[in-house]
Amino acid sequence: MSSSLLIKNATVISVDDTIGIQMNSDILVQDGLIKDIGPNLISRHNGEVFDATDCIVSPGFVDTHHHMWQQLIRGVTTDWSLANYLDNIRNIYGSLYTPDDVYTANHFAALDLINNGITTVIDHCHILNSSKHTDAAIKGLKDAGIRGTWCYGFYRNPGRSDLPGFDPDITTPAGFDHQARRQDAKRAREEHFPENNPEKQLLTFGGAPTEAEGMTEEALRDEIDFFRSIGARVVTMHVAIGNYAASSFTDSELDLIKNTGSGISATPETELQMGMGHPIAFRAAEVGCHVGLGIDITSNQSNDMLALMRLLLQAERGKRHRENPGTVPIDIQPKSEEALYMATMGGAKSIGLDHIIGSITPGKRADLVITRCDDMNVVPVTKPVGALMYNAHVGNIDTVLINGKIVKKDGKVVGVDWPKLREDVRTRTARMLDIAAKAPPPSEDSWTRLLVDP
Ligand SMILES: [Zn+2]
Fold it and tell me: How far away, in angstroms, is 85 Cα from ligand 1 center?
């Protein structure tokens, strides 16, 4: 049976060069695809209609790097350095999750991303303390109906059998070593992603090596080869972090990334807070790399892509002003459109999905965000991209479509029993905070060891 939706009278920010920004335009969605864009499509349509008067329609946002499991410990790292983060998140919280905690975290995180107009995510999942954790993490994303690639994380949380109040057999069972993880990754790929084809399914399988900068080149190559051998759609890893490199890609490294067609997921908020140097995004884009944006950790930042774009843009503008003291620029760079590109098309390119998503282009999948612009914080709209990036917030995001299906409607994520989920989240979080509070303080250099597989 064919399904059809006409979004009419919208301001369309297509992020497609040939289509551009269109006022009073219609978008025809049919069987999950964007069929047509233009004025007055209504005359030859007899399906469902969405009146998008006073609305901006933009492509669904693409979050290219996210540890979804941290949704349950929202806010705990907001004043932490990288050392504090590694000491507490990797050494404590990562060892406290039960498989059910992982399910709730991933499910809730995906729903909250959808709420924020993020329709595609790369989940770098390094909470896999047993094969039950693996199954729970995948199910959480699948049940939420988000598009993306779930990446099997080899990083091994150390386990904290010294802490009272939880059962290490459930949270971090012994024996789940690197070899067991390889077998489990292969099993997960075969069991949950038999086709692993992004044209046919929303969620696909990828790999995340242990920690690129904490292992030998040989070991890293071996892990990448392994993921390729089991058909990982993407392989993603942390690079240029902390005291290892301070966001310090050399020019030749950026050239290599560009020439191999690899993508960079820039995570400006983490980079700024945790001492990783100036955000890499625009420098990498200028040399021609595919650059997308990543939320990274909800233990610290919000899932708000609009805020992330603005933060990145203004940090970059600030840097360029500082580099030219005593001058008043006639033209400021970069432009808002460039940050929006990274959050949509650039992200899609960097994860190899730009033939499917990333712009409002006929033939692509209908992942769309409809933002109402009739509230006090948005009126009047003089520049559509500016209104979206500088004025709108999650509360203005009225409707979200993934694959043509409405997943947020009238400002609410569809099919969620929020009071029940909220209670579940609070209970799980309270249990973990309680256990973590009993942990002894870490030694001064303990965090340096945590980038390496223990
Ligand atoms: Zn990360």
Answer: 11
- The stretch 295-315 carries a mean pLDDT of 97
Q: Name 333's Cβ contacts closer than 8 Å, sequence gap at least 6.
A: 317, 320
Q: Which pLDDT tens digit goes with each residue over 324-353?
A: 988 888 899 999 999 999 999 999 999 999
pLDDT at 243: 55
Compute, in angstroms, the gap from residue 295 CA to the centroid of ligand 1.
9
Tokens 């696909």 appear where? 204
Sorting pLDDT into bands at 50, 70 and 90, what band is 453? very low
Does the pLDDT of residue 138 top 90, yes or no?
Answer: yes
Q: How far is the CA of 67 from the centre of ligand 1 (A)?
A: 6
* Ligand 1 centroid – CA 409 distance (Å): 30
Report, at the CATH architecture level, how domain 4-59+359-411 is classified.
Roll (2.30)
Q: Is 156 exposed, middle or buried (0-12, 13-18, 19+ CB in 10 A)?
A: buried
119/348 Cα distance (integer angstroms): 11
Q: What's the pLDDT tens digit per position in 192-228?
A: 999 999 999 999 999 999 998 888 999 999 999 999 9
**Mean pLDDT, rounded, for 374-379:** 98
Q: In this structure, which amino acid lies at residue 405?
A: K
Q: What's the pLDDT at 245? A: 52
**Would you say 132 and 99 are in contact if contact means Cβ atoms under 8 Å apart?**
yes
The residues, any chain, with a CB within 8 Å of residue 454's CB and separated by 6 or more, are 156, 158
The radius of gyration computed from the CA coordinates of the chain, to the nearest angstrom, equals 22
Distance 74 CA to ligand 1 centre (A): 15
Decide: 68 and 296 in contact? Cβ < 8 Å: no
Query: Residue 199: how many CB atoms within 10 A of its CB?
Result: 10
**Among 75, 68, 52, 67, residue whose Cα is nearest residue 5:** 52
Question: How much distance in Å is there from the Cα of 100 to the middle of ligand 1?
Answer: 22
* Phi (first) and psi of residue 198, to 5 degrees: -65, -15
Q: Which residue has the tokens 């940090």?
A: 315
How is the chain split into domains, by residue range? Answer: 4-59+359-411
Strand residue runs (E) in 14-158: 21-30, 33-38, 48-51, 55-59, 61-66, 118-125, 147-153
User: What residues pack around ion ligand 1 (CB closer than 5 A)?
Assistant: 296
**Tokens representing 302?**
């919000």
